[in-house]
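Before relying on records like the one below, remember that each one covers exactly one chain. Contacts with other chains, cofactors or solvent are not represented anywhere in the record.
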Amino acid sequence: MSGFGQRLVAAIALLVAPLTSETRARDETIERLRLGSGFEIIIGERQRDPGGRLLKALAIWVGAKLGHPVPTSLPKVVFRPEHLVAALRFKQHVSEFMPQGGRTSIISVYDSREKIIYLRESWSGATAADLSVLVHELVHHFQEERQTKFECDAERGAKAFELQEKWLRLFGESLEEAFQIDPFTLLVRTSCGM
C-alpha cells in the first residue's frame, strides 16, 4: 500500500473511531439494560405483554440501580380506561401523572395492596417515556416489598422519579421533555409539607 493509501486509511480510522466508541457505548448500555434477562428492549415497538419478560427486564434494571435484589414476585400489569385509572388514584398514594392540554392526567397507578400496576389503555410501551412509567411504578413495588418507610407520601415518589429520569436519560430524554415535569414541580411533588 502506498504512503498516501496508508495515510488515507489512518485518517478514516480516526474519523470512524468516535462513531465506533459511541456505537459500542450504546450497545453496552443496551446490555446493561438487559442485565442477563435475555430480553432486548426495543424502542419503537409496541409491547404486547408488558407484565412478562419486559417487566422482569425492567425490574432487573431497577434492582441494579437501587442496589436491591429483584423481588420474588413482580406486580401484575392491568390496562384500564383513563377515567378508571384516575378513580384508582384516589384510593392510592402513588401515581404517575402526565400533563395534557393544561390539565394533569393520571397515566398509571401502583396498587400496593393488590400488587398491580394499572396503566391507561393507550399505553403502548413503544417509547422510552412509556417504559419509564413502568420503571417508576416498579420502584414503588420495590419500596413496598422492602417495606421502606417515608415521612410522607410525596417523599415516596422521589426515588421513583429519580430512576425514571435516569431511564429517560439513557434515551436522550428527560421528565421535563417527556412529561412536562420541571425541576421545581418535581421538588414540590416529592417534598413533605409542600
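The first helix runs from residue 3 to 34.
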